[in-house]
Write a structure and sequence with these properties.
Structural class: alpha+beta
Strand content: 35-45%
Shape: elongated
CATH superfamily of the largest domain: Nucleic acid-binding proteins
Number of helices: 3
Oligomer: single chain
Number of domains: 2
Largest sheet: 5 strands, mixed, barrel
Order of helices and strands: HHEEEEEEHEEEE
Radius of gyration: 25 Å
Strand order of the largest sheet: 1-2-3-5-4
Length: 194
């Protein structure tokens, strides 16, 4: 190899090194870090336990676990910091910190969420089902329908009582026609598109 070829090879290697530095990529260890990352902004919309967080650069839908596990009281206009990780186009929350410093623990960063583990009310096939309650613990139908309304369901129709739950045709917060299941204790445990 003559001097010109060596010079060109060296220039090529140097060019690749500089291009790599200019377009530096995020180390995989940072993406997989169990602690996640923190974003901050103002809540613009709330959909049960999901909410839209906005800052000057854009918006993201934050997911903070199912309502049947634990209902949060996040309000539009609140300023929040959320630690978690990107999940597709959404953001999965680990912790939420309010402007006053109050911290809401959603799930551990490096472990499965608490709602993924076994529950006492799992059905015979291992799926989540209605919680069985004694007759004196059953809520009246009107109260169960109010729980659905408070959870954002509307146009409640075709209410059918089953042994341990009600199946109700409704529209969810997104306007989709769904069948929602609520057990006699008032736990909403299933929603499926109709």
């Amino acid at each position: 190899m003559n001097l010109t070829h060596k010079s060109l090879a060296a220039a090529g290697i140097l060019g690749l090194a500089l291009a790599g530095a200019a377009g530096a990529q995020t180390p995989i260890r940072d993406v997989l870090a169990p602690a996640g990352i923190t974003i901050s902004g103002t809540v613009t919309d709330v959909f049960g336990n999901k909410f839209v967080l906005e800052d000057a650069s854009g918006k993201v839908l934050v997911e903070s676990g199912p309502e049947w596990h634990r209902r949060l009281d996040i309000q539009a206009g609140e300023k929040l910091s959320v630690s978690g990780r990107p999940d597709g186009r959404n953001f999965e929350a680990f912790t939420i910190t309010r402007a006053d410093g109050t911290r809401i623990e959603i799930r551990p960063a490096g472990a499965p969420p608490p709602w993924a583990g076994p529950r006492d009310d799992r059905g015979p096939r291992g799926d989540r089902g209605p919680r069985h309650v004694a007759p004196h613990e059953e809520k009246p139908r009107a109260e169960l329908m109010e729980i659905l309304r408070q959870a954002g369901y509307r146009d409640l129709d075709d209410v059918e009582r089953k042994r341990n739950h009600y199946e109700v045709e409704a529209r969810n917060r997104f306007g989709e026609k769904v069948e929602v299941h609520i057990d006699l204790a008032g736990n909403i445990y299933r929603e499926k598109r109709d």
